[in-house]
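Residues pack. One example:


***
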Amino acid sequence: MNKFVYLSLCLFGFPFASFGQETTLTADELFVKARTEAFDQKNYAEAIKISKQALKQAPEYTDISIFLGRLYTWSDKIDSARTIFSKLESQNVQDEDLYIAYASLEYWNDQAAKAINLVDKGLSFHPTSEDLLLLRTKIDYSNNAYESAEKSVNNLLKLNPKNAEARALAKSIQEYTAKNAIGLNYNFVHFDKQFDDNWHIVALSYKRATPLGSVIFRTNYANKFADNGLQFEVEAYPRLSKMFYLYVAGGYSNNVGIFPKYRTGVSLYANLPHSFEGEVGYRQLYFSDNIWMYTASIGKYYQNFWFNLKTYLTPSNENISQSYAGTVRYYTKGANDYLGFLIGTGISPEENRNNLLDQSIYKLKTFKIGAEYNFSVNRTNLFSISSTYFNQEFRPNEKGNQIDITVGYIKTF
């Protein structure tokens, strides 16, 4: 009889005991379990079930309610999510996460006006919230409200200059906020051996922001080899989407040798996830023959820094000439305030020395290192100064030194 009672307890008692243990989990423990199901297992249905169980124990547990609303959002149950969020809002819940979650829901479902109202309400309770400011920036940027987006992202960068995502957005937004810009650059080049005369290059540019992207008109005057020359250039940055944009350029000069007769260039740029950006493209220079160069680069924003690696590859009949450059920028404030450092090898078609590419088929061996400082005054006055040192093998086994110094000013309006 005792054995019968023992077996009955084993068969029927243990399941009830196990069920009793499950129901004794606290709301906090159930919340942890729901998060584990959602984030580790991606089992949103089970996470919803557990969250509802937790709310039965603690109906006023705001964090669980917000999390349940997020789960409904991720499960594409938009009406259920809205019901939860709107109920919390009507109860005057001031939790920062509520307004991030609710505004994100509306933003992802193309309800920009509603999303902005929610973000602004959240900012009234949490004016220094980086997440809300970043969300406000994204909503305005996607809605082509660039001036408002710039204001939000600048406020965010004042709070945290190390926010890499905000830094990347600030650069993209900048292309739309300054409708007009006039720039003036002066470049001085000194050679210790390669040439007897210093070079002087002056560039005057006008930039116009259009709904399709920026367009730049530039005139370059150069005094090289004790001779003068002019070059006319047009550059455009048409936007294909929020992720992709193009660089398209062309130039002409009647002073071949000082400048290439023609130059063209096209690059496809991509604003990639996690604050990365990439580029692939080509550059073409025509002196007496065409020189074709192919370029690729990868960039990354990290806290206050921007890192970039770029290469130019120039095929010929005998070999492939290569140019590599690594750049680091440290941003002190906004998108136009930074210290930059560069190190690299080879000659790039973007440099004022690009006419040296046509002097010889000999593969020039060049080392370069430089620094630049850019800063803004009252946001509309942009100043820059840079210096680069080159050590170049201009003839086989014969090297010379070169110093470039450039100063620039841009007025935006």
